[in-house]
Amino acid sequence: MLRAINHAYDFQTGQNRPQSFWCMDDDDDDQLVRWVLKLMGLASGELAADWIGSFLAHRLGIRCPPIQIAEVSSDALRTAPRSVQEWARPGPAFASCEMIHAESGLRDDVMAERAEPDFLGALYALDAWLDVLDRRVAGGWNALLDTQAQRVCAIDFGKGLTPCVQKLLGPPIDMTVVNEPSYGTAVTSVASRNASLATCATIEGVDRTEIEAICASVPQAWVDQATREKIAEFLLIRQPRVRDVCSRLPTS
Amino acid sequence: MTDLSFFSYALLRFVPDVARDESINLGVIVVSDEERRSDGAFLSRFRARLRSFAPDSNPDAVEGAISSCRLRLGAAYQPTLVEVPTDEASPLIISTEQLRAMSASMRNQFQLSEPKPYRARSLKKATTELFQALVSPRHRPPAQAPRGMTLRQLQMLIRRTVREWGGDVVRIQERGLERASGTRHFADFWVERGSPIAALIAIPEDPDERDQAWARRDSVPTIAAEFRALDPYFTAVAVFPPNGHEPTKFVAETTEFLSNKDGVLVLHADQLDRFRDTIIPSLL
């Protein structure tokens, strides 16, 4: 199990206020490694969305930092700044391995130039499946550029699965409708349609048992059983519908 | 996990120009309130860094500031030191409060960061961990296993090899989807004679692309099975980078995983011409 030991850095960004912690793995008892933790205390539904989205990204072969669930004790929280202690709660946290050499806030031109067409096509399919709302906001991308390897990594699926994990005002959302991810013209024109459709085939190959197992791996402290079942149904209903959206990508 | 104790630490920084807010971390001071002790570790070779960072700064002044901090840590840190200050004007630092007061008073070229809590097994361990993580120069990570070929490099290599294959008998289609049993499958290259007779799927060896490699590897037996229903001689070929070294664990495992699958062939990119000369004719 991964355990948070000491607070390292407050990124002071994002609705879930990700925090860098030195963590220790029970299997490697003497090695402190920095992980980015999304702690309990704010929107715990987003932790579930992030866990499932990142898990599926790995399953589909989309580049994404390694993820784990980290145990955060009240002692570990005491090493964090007061401003964090005011809202953070001990318990399981969503953890993704910190990319030390990374650039955030990527713009369209960087994404179009640095992210491979296959990567973009595959991510397009996954974002459509999960209904990720904030991959690109005002021309800025929720992704990291590994400044050493010069490769783009997908991060943050917290704004996916929204109808399942968020309480929304207004009429109920039709969960069967799969929308085109808002990638903008520059990036959409680069994304590989073939890679996107190949990812759709992989998505269609993920069976009910596997989806239910992934949803069951979400800690109960984040969302209740009914929500986990709702997420599984959400994914299953939309599974065959992602292809329609991806087939509308321009042929590169 | 052994019990962890709480300590406080602060970083000693050199800030050549406070308005620029750029700094070099010179050392770390760690305090144990419980044991009423402190420890510290400081850079011994900082002059080269200083020269490149702030050429007009005085290295002797930096040396002096470090010495002064060392003195405040007391004899425990410097066993041979005789001039341990014990007067009230500069007491030894043995508590977080003292560290905080010291931090508040240092606001110019030499600054001490606001104390932060830190957990470790011992005072010495905390100092070592913090010095390595926050102060000592970053070293290159230990020599890594040679990086394997990336997916893009491998695809280019395969393309260079197979682009000559097309002719009257077979056609090469690049990075496309083909349909079998109602599902469309992706391959980097399809070898076709009217309909597909083989698919080439590149499997990268770069550890950073392991997720993609696994996803691609898992697709090979499915492609073989589905297209064999249409053509019993169809072959799905998993193509690794050229076989120039001992197979990595990943290549060995993948080869074993795929070797007993019907209609699957595992090749290295430098064996593709042999595939063209010997295998393709038998598929025609």
Please provide a brief summary of the model.
Chain A is of the alpha+beta class and about 250 residues long. Chain A has helices at about 45-60, 75-80, 80-85, 110-115, 115-130, 160-165, 185-190, 195-205, 210-215, 225-240, 240-245, and strands spanning about 1-10, 20-25, 30-40, 65-70, 90-95, 100-105, 105, 135, 140, 145, 150-155. Chain A contains eleven helices and eleven strands.
The residue-averaged pLDDT of chain A reads 92
- Given the structure, what is the number of helices of chain A? 11
**Element order of chain B: H for helix, E for strand:** EEEHHHEEHHEEEHEHEH
> How would a textbook summarize the main sheet of chain A?
5 strands, mixed, barrel
For the CA atoms, what is the radius of gyration of chain A?
Answer: 18 Å
The most extensive interface between chains reads: A-B, 35 and 28 residues
Number of DSSP E strands of chain B: 10
Major sheet of chain B, described briefly?
Answer: 5 strands, antiparallel
Give an overview in words:
The complex is a heterodimer of chains A (252) and B (284). By secondary structure, chain A is α+β, with helices and mostly antiparallel strands. Chain A folds into two domains: 2-97; 102-246, no CATH class. Chain A contains eleven helices and eleven strands. Chain A has helices at 44-59, 74-78, 82-85, 108-114, 117-130, 162-165, 184-188, 193-205, 208-216, 225-238, 242-246, and strands spanning 2-10, 19-25, 28-40, 67-72, 89-97, 102-103, 106-107, 136-137, 140-141, 143-146, 151-154. In chain A, the strands form three sheets. In chain A, strands 1-2-3-5-4 form a five-stranded mixed beta barrel. A three-stranded antiparallel beta sheet of chain A has the order 6-10-11, with no helix packed on it. Chain A is globular and about 55 Å long. The N and C termini of chain A lie far apart (44 Å). The model of chain A has no long low-confidence stretch (mean pLDDT 92). Chain B has 284 residues and is of the alpha+beta class. Chain B folds into two domains: 5-134, no CATH class; 151-279, Trna Endonuclease, Chain: A, domain 1, CATH 3.40.1350. Helix content of chain B is 35%, strand content 26%. In chain B, the strands form two sheets. In chain B, strands 1, 2, 3, 4 and 5 form a five-stranded antiparallel beta sheet that branches. Chain B has a five-stranded mixed beta sheet with strand order 6-7-8-9-10, with helices on both faces. In chain B, β2 and β3 (37-42) form a beta hairpin. Chain B is elongated. The two termini of chain B are 63 Å apart. Chain A binds chain B through residues 3, 5-7, 22, 24, 26, 29, 32, 57-64, 75-76, 78-79, 81, 116, 118, 149, 151, 192, 194-195, 197-198, 201-202, 204-205, and chain B through 1, 4, 6, 116-119, 129, 133, 151-152, 175-177, 183-186, 208-209, 211-216, 219, 222.
